[in-house]
Amino acid sequence: MDAEQHDVGVSRVAAAIAEPARTRMLCALMDGHARTSTELASIAEVSASTASAHLAKLRELALVRLHVQGRHRYYSLADPRVAQALEALMVIGQSASPPFTSRTPDRLQFARTCYDHMAGALAVRLHDRLLEAGWLVGVEGDGYQLSEPGEALFNGLGIDVPALTLQRRRFACPCLDWSMRRPHLGGALGKALLQVAIKRKWVIQDLDSRALRLTAEGQRGMAARFGIITETQTKPAAAIASRLASPVDLR
């Protein structure tokens, strides 16, 4: 793709996302769930025919994917890169005036899904801890690889690390967190880690939002596996974020 084609492509995608109703639809799909056009029309507060037109445009630009099951038609984000781009745009869209105060609701700021991986204060602290401990190592090209102890850690969680490296998506990469304005872990490794957290009931995913609820078992698991001491989610979001951003107490 030459420079002119690249510019046109960026402009078309930017124009599509700039429409508020389409933005609401895309953000609603960031929890990784597929939704019908009727559900998305309700979320975007538009008519069914308008929603269909918006979804057709988003499909044309490869931002959403259509899934057909019998008479039912569902839409989801096309791939994790769309969610990553939206998360980054949310950061840019918020006021940059210091000091930064997130307007994200408490539950979403603490832990939520970012398409197929974890975001929020908890995910940012986990990302930082993986780097601090040397389990995750930066590589050229804005990505990560696991050290030998890191691979052993993830294998111990039941994650088939070699299989993840064979996937067509990036293995592990930073994804800028909308509410924290710092990276959380994306890529195939981030997806696998969220799946483990859900399977082990460390977190419970809301059915109607992106929020993740950390369980008592999750608090124990985070402490035992990663050395992360967490607060309960009943604390104010700012206090939670501050506690998770502080150095880890391993005593």
TrEMBL record:
GO MF entries: cadmium ion sensor activity; DNA binding; DNA-binding transcription factor activity; lead ion binding
SMART domains: HTH_ARSR (SM00418)
Database matches in InterPro entries: ArsR-like_HTH, HTH_ArsR_DNA-bd_dom, HTH_Metal-responsive_Reg, WH-like_DNA-bd_sf, WH_DNA-bd_sf
GO terms classed as biological process: response to cadmium ion; response to lead ion
Domain HTH arsR-type: 2-97
Pfam families in the cross-refs: HTH_5
PANTHER family reported for this sequence: TRANSCRIPTIONAL REGULATOR-RELATED, TRANSCRIPTIONAL REGULATORY PROTEIN
Protein name per its UniProtKB record: Helix-turn-helix transcriptional regulator
Species this chain originates from: Pseudomonas marvdashtae
Lineage: Bacteria, Pseudomonadati, Pseudomonadota, Gammaproteobacteria, Pseudomonadales
